């Protein structure tokens, strides 16, 4: 329905405008009945609906809803279509419950595997996280229900999350931590963004002008509203000025009155408040227009989707001697309390009341002719029960195969607290070791929200990472174990061998007031590759019951300008005996750079379904951003001239296909030429390349002569060689080196004239 929001705004009193900037209660916005402005409802997500039966009554029970796999699992599918489908299903449940906004997706980067909330975050890689988030948003909003992309930004730990100051340099902030939000906001057009509790570089996220106004609104063009995480307000008026529209939940009339008083005193320009109200009205009426009275969703269909999603998210980490898939004729010992009492979701605000729960033992019993159960360990506590281990060992010895269900209990990872180690409960470790000692055909199925150490890995033949697979995780696990579904998940994060190996180990979780992101750009696989560290399992890793061959790569051009796109065609074949889905991963590798960069970065992926013997050609399109880094001189993305290798394969550690493209930059990597501008920067620009080459080479001769002179006067031939070595780095010198003893003998006045001429050539004098 078309509405004149400016007309509505003109009829509002100052007090009514201010009132819209905070909630009615825990989950609703305020209404203005006389002007027909309704209240809308929002609830927790992001992997299912967590709604209280009465949004105004905190004591009311949570309504049943489908619990889908959490973010860690969904990202492991690397399947844009699947995550969009899950988003659509969640939206349908919102429509039935008259909910207008679901709070998710959560797209914060997995900086450390210790973060207690990693189970609901997607990835360590910003491109993958951004793509998953964008498609989640598209799925939900296609049904007329809004999303709230969270937690903006650099909310990468639970320790002191309400106050910690994240110190992040500009490149790292933009290339890693903001990049994961960009897709959901720009491509997904998310209705709302939720700001985090923490500070970023000295300002709380709720009043951070750089994050909310400069990046989100101006650079990305976000048209919706920004709301606080619950209780994440600091100073109300300061937040409104910085781009925060909605404070949640309602804490009383005082904060609304602060806004009124600030306008009346002149502290706050009423135009700022008016813009906030227009954004609020836009989202409120979007929510109203999406309502469908009497809508009901198909609970069975949603459960089947949850089962299919969970199976497609599982990652086969190890499968020696092709132990998996099992067949129905094998006798199987099903061991571990999680087999009957699955851990299927994380703790905290995303905790859902499921419509039903599938247990793995029940599903396996329906597929196997002979399946028996042993508990193995207690669900609560970490006491080693030798009697339970002995019972499990006895059962395992009597069967063809043992399948152990293990992982992390809820007490080990939850919103609100970070982990202090990467270990499983000792009771489970001892169980796995004891069973594997008597049963060579042992498989382990993991239920955990983030990486764990695996000291028992060499002793077992197969490991299936199930993450927190939602309410259908039990039946989905049986589908994969018995080959009804060919595993196709790939790790969206690196599994380290030990905690001390992780990139942020020395800087997590920081001190009492701040945490320094000292690892910079080198998060996840970027760090392991740069350090030549061998992780337990690399980013992108995942096995299958079939095999794939990467047969060819072709570029549509070998030279491009940064204003052009590059098409990459990759041919992949299923060389095995069963149908399967393969995640084709494309990374871009700069072969030389003027700045520190990761060895390679993920810039494309596609999931293809192939029958035995079938080949498919997957096409990727790369643009300027695929080659660019965030240039802190121009405060924007910049793709520098040079050669880039496009590498493609099944994981970050295995990229058998490669091709090289030469990119020519048409942009200027600085705002103005000054005495500190480097030769290599000028050499990369056609308009200044000739001057830079001549000036640099002219001063090179002088350096060589001085080297020879010093060598002769001191009787040391090595000095001449040293000066020759210095020459190789000349291109990194600044223009100021043209004046003085080591340069070309220019006076300061001559250098100033040269700088003016260069700025004129580049039209930078204005």
Descriptive account of the structure:
This protein is α/β, with parallel strands linked by helices. It folds into four domains: 14-26 and 52-290, TIM Barrel; 299-493, Rossmann fold; 548-664, Immunoglobulins (Immunoglobulin-like), CATH 2.60.40.10; 679-761, no CATH class. 32% of the residues lie in helices and 17% in strands. Strand 10, helix 13 and strand 11 (370-374) form a beta-alpha-beta unit. Helix 4 (80-96) runs antiparallel to helix 12 (299-313) and helix 12 packs across helix 16. The two termini are 47 Å apart.
Poorly predicted regions are none
The CA-CA distance between the termini, in Å, is: 47 Å
Beta percentage is 15-25%
Number of domains: 4
Break the fold down into its secondary structure elements and pairings.
Blueprint: H1 5-10, H2 14-19, E1 42-44, H3 71-76, H4 80-96, E2 101-103, H5 126-141, E3 146-152, E4 165-167, H6 170-177, H7 179-187, E5 192-195, E6 199-200, E7 203-204, H8 209-219, E8 225-228, H9 236-242, H10 254-265, H11 270-290, H12 299-313, E9 315-319, E10 331-335, H13 360-367, E11 370-374, H14 386-397, E12 401-407, H15 426-438, E13 442-447, E14 462-465, H16 473-481, E15 514-516, H17 525-530, E16 548-555, E17 559-561, E18 566-574, E19 580-590, E20 601-610, E21 615-622, H18 624-627, E22 629-631, E23 636-638, E24 642-649, E25 657-664, H19 679-683, H20 686-714, H21 717-727, H22 748-761
Parallel strand pairs: 1-2, 2-3, 3-5, 4-6, 4-15, 5-8, 10-11, 10-12, 12-13, 13-14, 17-25
Antiparallel strand pairs: 6-7, 9-14, 16-18, 18-21, 19-20, 19-24, 22-23, 24-25
Family: Belongs to the glycosyl hydrolase 3 family.
GO biological process, one term: carbohydrate metabolic process
Protein name: Glycosyl hydrolase
